Amino acid sequence: MSKILVYPFDVEFEPIIKCLENNSEINSLVLSSPNGWGYVGTEYNWKNQVIVITNEFESLLDDCDEVWFVPSRNFIHPIDIIINKVEASINMKKNTYFWRNPKELESVRNEVKDKIIMNNSYIVQEIVDHDTEIYQFEVPIIGVMGNSEQTSKFELELMISERLRNLGYDVSLVASKAGFDMLDLYSFPQWMICPGMTELQKIVCFNHYIKSIETINQPDIIIIGIPGFMYPFSNRIHGDFGVLHFEISWAIEFDYIYFSLLFGDYDSQVLNRIKDIAKNTFGYEIDCFNLSNNLMNPVELEENEATNYVTIPDHKVLERLITYNSNSHNMISNRCVESVDIAVDRMIKTLEGYLKTTAV
């Protein structure tokens, strides 16, 4: 049984807390967050414990078995702050896991770096595959995508996966985020995002990557989370103009698609336009929309390329969700577990006859 110190805690780690409740090897979590991020003093219920987020770090090392440096939405600046904490953890001979981007450790001394357990999901591996066949799949493939970053795709993927597993299905999840290898999932491959491979190679290799997951794990269902933008948000905020989705649409034929939206006011015309873009550009059929609780900072949106997001209170999201569904929109929200569970049950009925097992 282990006691884990997690740093730097923010909203990115929130969905992980619940997932770790089923991990019998962890009996205690300590959550540390920098001052100024707005989390110090916040309480979370976990395994019948109340966790109070602290800004302490070095003073907590004595009482912990492992230290996890996890991805965060907020930036650590200067980077020496996190490097000093990594070195402190190593000096205390703690099992030190660095789930963040390894580039942050470029200035760390080699004798320290060699003792850190690194996250491999950020590594761009050289892929050589001379077989160019595109394979078909024996199990349903579920896609989770969105119209921007920070649309809670990752949280939604975890919720869909948990609901399916609770119903007795064996699920393989390829998550839209890298850096959470402590969970039973695959990270979206970095070679799909980074330069170095042609579009043809990426299409073929991604198809083979998912096929290998199906062959090795033999799941009942596969969930694939796709990072980034499906289409340009504006003339200045456009991601990769949907190039990643173009490649994936040729590699994978989805059987069911969840499309996650930034918080906003979407009428039927806007939602139908999103469906048309998905269908006409990529051949996607959107089955369900998800309304997140994040909104691009409107001040930055006016002044420059928005990089920060505003978090909307849950009650506002739920009020908007009720309005959508009263107008017969197939809309859920990751901020409402019940809505996600109902949507997954609806999906199962849609895929009935295709899934190998039946719900318990």
Uncertain segments are none
Question: What is the CA-based Rg, rounded?
Answer: 21 Å
Mean pLDDT: 88
The helix-and-strand class reads alpha/beta
Distance between the termini: 30 Å
- Tally of extended strands? 16
Please, how many helices? 10
Q: Numbering strands along the chain, what is their spatial order in the largest sheet?
A: 10-9-11-8-12-13-16
Residues in β-strands, percent: 15-25%
* Helicity, as a percent range: 25-40%
Largest sheet: 7 strands, parallel
Instruction: List SSEs in N-to-C order.
Output: EHEEEEHEHEEHEEHEHEHEEHEHEH
Write the layout of secondary structure elements.
Elements: E1 2-7, H1 14-19, E2 26-31, E3 43-46, E4 49-52, E5 66-69, H2 80-91, E6 95-98, H3 110-113, E7 117-118, E8 141-146, H4 153-166, E9 171-175, E10 186-187, H5 199-217, E11 221-225, H6 243-251, E12 256-261, H7 268-282, E13 288-291, E14 294-296, H8 298-303, E15 309-311, H9 314-326, E16 331-332, H10 337-350
Parallel strand pairs: 1-2, 1-5, 5-6, 6-7, 8-11, 8-12, 9-10, 9-11, 12-13, 13-16
Antiparallel strand pairs: 3-4, 14-15
Helix pairs in contact: 4-10, 5-6
